Fold each of these.
Amino acid sequence: VIDCILRDADGNLHLVDYKTDRLTKEERENPELARQKLTRAHSLQLSYYALAIKEIFGKSPKTVRVYSLPLGDTVDIPKDAFIAD
């Protein structure tokens, strides 16, 4: 289930998915390490979500982010981590 799709004032779509993955102290202190871990763990799932959004809305999300509860912040998931659409 897609957690959140936002539409900005320009009509762009943004996908946000909430995650509760445990992060090490180093990952919590270094957002790049957290991004790498969350990308590895969830890029396939988020690829499917992005494909579903494209099918439903006729366009891909401009950004894909994970809101990490342990980190208390969002991390951007790079589009090159996704399966081809």
Amino acid sequence: MGIIEKIKSGLLKTKESMVKRIDSFIGSFTKIDEEFFEELEEILITCDIGVSTSVKICDELRKR
């Protein structure tokens, strides 16, 4: 397996893990409130999305 394939494989695992965490999280909430956004932001940060990107995502979702 070459280096590119290893990187692709690692990124795929990271993506799958993040999607599972977000799906599970969203399914556990019954309403979208500030607690929802705080939890989502924390999940995004711990998935290595980054603080500024996580904040931007949540801010955009709040607007919608």
Amino acid sequence: ALLFLSELQDFIEKRHAEMPEGSYTTSLFKDGLNRMAQKVGEEALETVIEATSGGDKLTYEASDLLYHLIVLLTAKGLRIEDVVSELQQRHDPNWDKKRREAKAAGKMK
């Protein structure tokens, strides 16, 4: 799955570099960061609605969410591998130890 998402991002990066006319991806880059972030939010909401309503389009909406997230990451100079690295760090039991200890001590909400 990661290999496919990485290849998808390579394709999106190519679109960003070439900016071919008529490409939806090009239109997102031209519309700017706020529009890209808005699309991530829209697709996240549609994914939640499908998940909770019993609809049959959950994988469709989740695919849209992942696509738009990768476009946003690309615009910010990040890769899907950066997200995977963050998730791997969070798998370490000591990853969030200081924050959890401070929260338990009442030093943060």
Amino acid sequence: MSLKQTLIVYETVDSAYASGEKVKELFASYPEVTVTVKRVEGEKGSTDFIKIIIPGTNGKSTGGSSPTFGIIGRLGGLGARPNRIGLVSDGDGAVAAIASALKLAEMKQKGDHLQG
């Protein structure tokens, strides 16, 4: 992961309007990357679950046999509005996971493909 991707993701999610759809838009320029967003709503608010798939050259998602590389996180919330404004400390895990996916997407676009 690099500083560039971390800053891009940080700026994307450090907003009162942050959402899974905003993260999905971040990956729109990477045609081989699939992003799905599922929103779950409850009495106290909502949470977006984001799944980012960057297929490898021989990965199972493309019919290959290479193991799947995954970054899976059970992360804290990005914000605690209206009690707290801005990105809260629990948001660092989400920033790191999304920034890692963004770096992998950029690597793939530049010709560096993972097997799985």
